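hey so u asked for the seq, here:
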Amino acid sequence: MKRCIVFIVLAAGCGRPEAGPAPISYGEDACDLCRMIISEAPYAAEARFGPDKVEKFDDIGCLGERLWEGPAPVAMWVADHSSGRLHPVSSVALVHVKDLKTPMASGVAAFADRAEAEAFKSKNGGRFIGVDEIKSMRRPPKR
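ran it, structure tokens below
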């Protein structure tokens, strides 16, 4: 009986863990949209499009532009500007600063801490935005 219980516990632990962001190899991984090397952690982003498909971006704006193509992602993460750690986009404050130098000139920074976002926004003359606005700012050219 003990062996059976141990087997059941071990088997239950073998399930696929909830899929979070994939590690980014800064200085090596390329942005899946613009193909630039991802080198600045404060502006990185990721999107999961299925259990085995993760796309990485060097700028939050590249993520916004990618949203114009289907299918829609099942999860999105952006890097906290202060720490570089990836957080679900729904849990951060997104700040747009017109003159903020980001890898692809989106001017968008994400903050896990709302007080840090407020301070950054005030200091740099920015404004809070949402993912839909990032998407609309980065509409790809018509072909």
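The longest helix spans residues 2-12. Residues 27-137 form one domain.
lmk if thats what u needed
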